[in-house]
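Why this split exists: single-chain examples teach little about how molecules sit against one another. For that reason, every record in the complexes split bundles all components of an assembly together and asks for one structure covering all of them. Below is a record exactly as it appears in the raw files.
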Amino acid sequence: MEFEIEKVLPNGLGRVGTIKTAHGEIKTPAFMAVGTNGYVRFIAPAELRDLGAQAMLSNGYHLRRKAPEIAETGGLAEWSGWHGPTITDSGGFQVMSLGSGLGKVVSMEKERHVTNTAHKERLAHVSEDGVSFIDPFDGQPDFIGPEESMQIQCQIGADIHMAFDELTSLADTYEYNIEAVERTERWAERSLREHIKYRDDLGYRQNLYGVLQGGRWEDLRRQTAQHLGAMQVDGVEFDGFGLGGAFLKEDLGEILRWCNEELPMNKPRHLLGLSHPDDILIGAEMGADTFDCVAPMREARHGKIYTRTGNINLRKYSDAGEPLDHDCDCATCQAGWTRGSLRALWRSGDMEKKAKYYNLASIHNLRFIVRLTEEIREAMLGGYFEDYKHNFLAKYYATS
RNA sequence: GCUGGAAUCGUCUAGUGGCAAUGACAAGAGACUGUAAAUCUCUCGGCUUCGGCCUUCGUAGGUUCGAGUCCUACUUCCAGCA
């Protein structure tokens, strides 16, 4: 995999580049649509291409039982029908979402009182070897460690894989984060060692990103960035890096700066799991190249429609005749769907109509975020990123 | 006209002596960030100094410490018989 940097921001961190994978190029900064199970919910591959998505992120954890079948068809790109660049998560997020964060919302709001789920109630438990968990779908016990995750991901065969990591929650202490980040580094080395055994098995080169944790502590973040940035197994390094963790909004930029000041400049960085415009803007500014997140699609399904002047709740009747967003080039808006017409589909009891709504709304929100990254790229290349960011945020957050 | 049955929050509905009164839908507000999420939370008679207060179950009386619940009359609706 090659990564070419075309331009760097004056701050020395943010940049414009191109990631070249076996299944195509990704012009960065870029947002990757999340298709956890190998498809983006309610969006067909062709629609995904049409709205400008350049890559799709799936999850090794969710696809683990299908991995052999996916390998047989030649890998995720073929199996999914997407055919473009793909990336898989290791299952590390589920360590938290089924473990300490079970039943909780992953929030970036400071005011929210955060507590960890009691140990005995968790579906996932961390040990040095890996993570034992109860599959929430069938109740069966299972286990994934770095080796298992790599074996699964190499069978799925995405262009980019994530090292198996432990995501801590906002409620975890400094002491626990030391433990977790050190374990994540040991897992990273085991991941790399296992990955290089299988990375060419499907006939094209699969790549591995090391994932940085360390919570909100500068020493942990800088150290792990140095460690992972320099890590080698048999002379092989990571192909890029995942920037992971649960963040408070106000800390995000600073944490990314700590990480990216230490990481090698010439390798791509993926900011895991964030997509609200302010997060993408600060992420790109601080040197993240790619992003993924479920929010655009999930929030669309839940009736939140993104617009340039702030998000709207589709439940409201008052603006039924309005387009979703006056300034949107997505297929849904271009087809002339109004807020009222979409609302009628959404609120109808008819499953087919609801599915149509989920499709139209997901396309709109996803296009909104993809377009944001396209515009960030243009703004960086054009030398007006600061102005673009300021103007975008001023309009977008004016009402909230 | 007779005989049954029924009238409860926008709608449907629970309730047969302690009730501002069940549930669902609708409505309103909020949440959601590497998807246990086509989900979840809150409000939903009025007022409130959040302790309560007031007005409510077709209408009007009555029995009772207490009535949406029991009794009487009336009104309307439904069914059957004329």
